[in-house]
Amino acid sequence: MNSGIGIKRRGFIAGLLGLAAAGCTKVAESRAGKSIFDAAERWHAGAHRLLGGRTALAPEYTPAEISPFFRGNGTLNPSSDAYQASLAGNFTDWRLEVRGLVRHPLTFTLDNIRALPQRTQITRHDCVEGWSAIGQWTGPQLSLLLDAAGVREDARYIVFRCADTLAGGAYYESIDMIDAYHPQTIVAHLLNDEPLPVRNGAPLRMRVERQLGYKHPKYLTAIEAVASLEDIGGGQGGYWEDRAGYQWYAGI
Ligand SMILES: Nc1nc2c(c(=O)[nH]1)N[C@H]1C(S)=C(S)[C@@H](COP(=O)(O)O)O[C@H]1N2
Ligand SMILES: [Mo]
Which of 20, 144, 172, 190 could form a disulfide with 115 if both were Cys (CB 3.0 to 4.6 A apart)? Predict the structure, then answer.
């Protein structure tokens, strides 16, 4: 069942990308869009029954509960010339690659990302450093991008690459396929209906709502499907996992 839907979704996205390039923005409302939503709903319902707790939804909040200010943490403004030039150009040159163990490596522009079916969710972000904030995030589900690229059967993890560099090097993170296909795992480009502020990861950041703050990479440049985390950084699956012994699975 899953692979059949995967093929349908890939065809859908391929069509969408072609249409987006031609300037059509209404595709998400089309009949193809509707049927793909139905298919995705059925897939998630089936997965939920099979996998139990790992696919439960994180709590969602009401607009009245949104924090007036969503603070930033870690990198607040990547210092590289490339990032600053892209920011100055309103990120029109930003590219998100989907690569690694996929049948069809893809490159998305921000317009491509905005043209995909969107999910909006109001969630609470919890940082291990002892603060929380509630925000409304919007973007396509990661599963849409992965199905468009056709993740191979030997892929077990999804690695995220970022444009910023902290004292210990570039930021990176990773999750397993259960979180990658979780309905609330989205590639966010809007916070509270506005393009992401720079401090919160402009122009793209992951939301992985069942996990702690450091599992939500900002300044996203690439999504890589891999079979093992052994050769990623120090092998523990993330910047803070490798440097400070943070848990790789940071479920909340
Ligand atoms: N690229 C990148 N992603 C990152 C970080 C970072 O420094 N660089 N910090 C992480 C941590 S520890 C937290 S709590 C959140 C903070 O997100 P915010 O800046 O939107 O509050 O981003 C996470 N993702
Ligand atoms: Mo954090």
Answer: 20
Sign of CA dihedral 232, 236, 238, 241: negative
Q: Does 49 map to a domain?
A: no
- Nearest-CA residue for ligand 1 atom 15 is 213
Q: Please state, in angstroms and rounded to a whole number, the distance separating the CA atoms of residues 35 and 3.
A: 16
Would you say residue 69 lies in a domain?
yes
Residues near ion ligand 2 (Cβ under 5 Å): 127, 213-214
Determine the 3-state secondary structure of 211 from DSSP.
Answer: strand
Q: How many domains does the chain have?
A: 1
What's the 119 CA to ligand 2 centre distance in angstroms? 24
* pLDDT tens string 193-222: 999 999 999 999 999 999 999 999 999 999
Strand segments, DSSP code E, in 103-228 are: 106-108, 119-127, 131-139, 157-166, 169-176, 185-188, 190-191, 194-195, 205-208, 220-226
Minimum CA distance residue for ligand 1 atom 2: 218
Residue nearest to ligand 1 atom 7, measured at CA: 74
> Does residue 190 surpass a pLDDT of 60?
yes
Question: Could you list the residue range(s) of the whole structural domain that residue 16 is in?
Answer: 3-23+58-244
* pTM for the structure as a whole: 0.85
DSSP letter (8 states) at residue 151: B
